[in-house]
Amino acid sequence: MRRGNKARLEAAGWSVGSVKEFLGLSEADAVLIEMKLSLSQSLRDRRKKQGLSQVQLAERLQSSQSRVAKMEAGDPSVSMDLLVSSLLQLGASSADLANAIRGREKRTGPRAA
User: pLDDT tens digits, residue range 57-112?
Assistant: First the structure.
């Protein structure tokens, strides 16, 4: 958040903090969530780069479009195992997975920054 925005919010009586603080997450939980979100974003980026729709990816994974949407959104019902195996089926290497987890892959879309 920009300092100016933060200062304005705090001046108006709002409390500004992190999601970790708000939810009372441990450091391990916060890191795990970030890893999962990174893998989800990597799956979306890889699918789009290959020119696949969610329906086409679902067919490849023998799953449903709604499940792929949940995977890409980082839904809590989606396991990291499913994300990793799906990325591998799309041709990701172990190095690609490591980079995704570290957040070093090029980002596209609204989460890019």
Answer: 999 999 999 999 999 999 999 999 999 999 999 999 999 999 998 876 544 444 44
- Asked whether 113 and 107 are in contact (CB, 8 A), the reply is yes
DSSP track, 51-81: T--HHHHHHHHTS-HHHHHHHHHT-TTS-HH
Q: What angle separates helix 65-73 from helix 27-49, to the nearest 10 degrees?
A: 130
What's the one-letter identity of residue 101?
Answer: I
Query: CA 27 to CA 42: how far, in whole Å?
Result: 22
User: Can you say whether residue 74 is alpha, beta or left, with left for phi > 0 and alpha for psi between -120 and 50 degrees?
Assistant: left
Cβ pair 45, 107 in contact under 8 A: yes
Is this structure's pTM higher than 0.90? no
Q: In 3D, which of 92, 93, 90, 80 has the Cα closest to residue 38?
A: 80
CA distances from 5 to 11, 20, 27 (A): 10, 20, 26
